Amino acid sequence: MNPLSNYAFLDESSKREIRRATLKAISIPGYQVPFASREMPIARGWGTGGLQLTLSLVGKGDRVKVIDQGADESVNAVNIKKLVSSTTGVEVTEFTASASLIQSRHRIPEEPLQADQILILQVPIPEPLRLYERSEAATRKLHSEKEYSGAYLILFEQIMRYGRVSTGADHPVMVNDRYVMAPSPIPRFDNPKMDSSDALILLGAGREKKIYAVPPHTRVVSLDFKDHPFEIESVEGRCCRLCGATGVYFDELQDNETGETFYQCNDTAHCLSLMNAEDGV
Amino acid sequence: MSDARAPGEDWVLRTNKLSKQFGDRCDLCRSVDPSVLERNFCPKCGTVYALRSVSFDLYRGEVLGIVGESGSGKSTILNCLYYDLEPTSGEVFVRDFEEGQTNIFSVSGQRRRHIRNHVLGKVYQNPVHGLRMRFSSLANIAEKLIAAGNRTVGDMEDRARNLLEHVNIPTFRMKEAPANFSGGMQQRVQIAKALSNNPPVLLLDEVTTGLDLSVQAKVLDLIKQIRRDFEISMLLVSHDLAVVRMLADRTIVMLNGTIVERGLTDQIMEDPQHAYTQELVYSLL
Ligand SMILES: Nc1ncnc2c1ncn2[C@@H]1O[C@H](COP(=O)(O)OP(=O)(O)OP(=O)(O)O)[C@@H](O)[C@H]1O
Ligand SMILES: [Mg+2]
Ligand SMILES: [Zn+2]
Predict the structure, then answer these.
(1) For labeling, which of A107, A163, B22, B132 is most exposed (least CB within 10 Å)?
(2) Which residues have CB atoms below 5 A from the ion given as ligand 3?
């Protein structure tokens, strides 16, 4: 830890400002709160929003886990972990259950989160109506009037074009029956985990300078139509080649030699803990 | 009830002393004497008096033409009626909203949206304002249905296909975005969209302006056909008296934000009273 730099990189007033925005976000579930996003020593679009949330919250007793698309070992996740631990000295972990702060890009861990954990999701595009309305002033007005025809229109258009809702990820949700929210590019598979979550979920968009939140035990409903009900990606009949898990989100891989398709847990920490349990570790 | 109503009572939309200014006004133009204005603006402060106490009724099933030169305030009327602009003063009542008892400008938010989605349909002079150019034509129609609360894709697609067929958009192009269409086709998609929720009142702003003559004729035919097929009243704005003569039962003539003449279209054509109307009519002959 460099004694000349600030604890957790950001200066105290920046952290306070971020925490104030976070508190506001928690008190208005799903509402996008603007904040003065800072320059970060990682490239924008690589989780500067999530990182600022993490840095504003991390305290001496915390244990931090960072995942990128389910993997703790990706370059991006490792860089963020390095920055956090070198500026705070706090412990990092890969075990979901023992982390108090979990910063993630594009996934919610398989292991159900607990009341004493905080999940921080990195968000590239926080505005669920952006495809429908380019102007920020106009989308703000639509949110204030709870006018969400545009969100449904985007889904309708996908059904017209592709015969089904084609949101591979970032499928819009209604939070607390009030604000429609972009859940960040998590697969639809993870959307239900947001509903009545025991853990606090925070979402940060660095480039777009927005923070929003799903407080614990908040109702989160994925938008759909009566004749096109929301469905998660089917994982039926699949199991992890390494740990044997079923009913989790998989990466689809090809065996180089046989050319055969096989599946592997996308959440590497979960996979590892299942394998360890098997081995009696 | 409707049988007992006198013919003059059977209005579907009533506009009472509608006024719209652009600007802050000054001592000179605040004086009640309208002769201080130069055309429709104040020579001292530049405030534009786009509408000055405009009142008229639209009757059930009729086409009411609004004609007048550029800048006379025609679009401003429609923009106020569709909530695209907030009038400076005046009232508007629509029969299908709270029995015509409530001024539509006295309500806010959701009730305005209800009126826009259920009671009114509008076709803009420029299709860019009425359509989402990059969404499919089907989605464009569905937008109003979704806004009105429909959440069944199958229903909405059926309705959208029917309407697009009605305005002669070929089936194989319905999934295309209006951005790819000709001006005439875009106007027809707009008309289908405006009709989507079966509104009792249709607002048409210069639907044929800027189209080739042959395309104009087709759009005018379509409006005639819609009038036959749907029980709908129309406010038809045009600077072109020929268009109004072809479609409107009654006509209002606007000049500098005021109505200078009104009556049956035939009568106005045969015996125009106001000097401005005479000029318009004679130029047509
Ligand atoms: N946003 C605005 N700000 C200032 N003045 C405006 C605005 N919109 C309209 N006006 C003025 O109000 C007057 C009426 O305009 P309006 O668009 O209603 O005319 P119009 O009869 O529809 O004309 P056209 O035939 O050219 O479409 C014009 O003098 C116009 O310049
Ligand atoms: Mg106009
Ligand atoms: Zn003045």
Answers:
(1) A163
(2) B 26, 28-29, 42, 44-45, 47
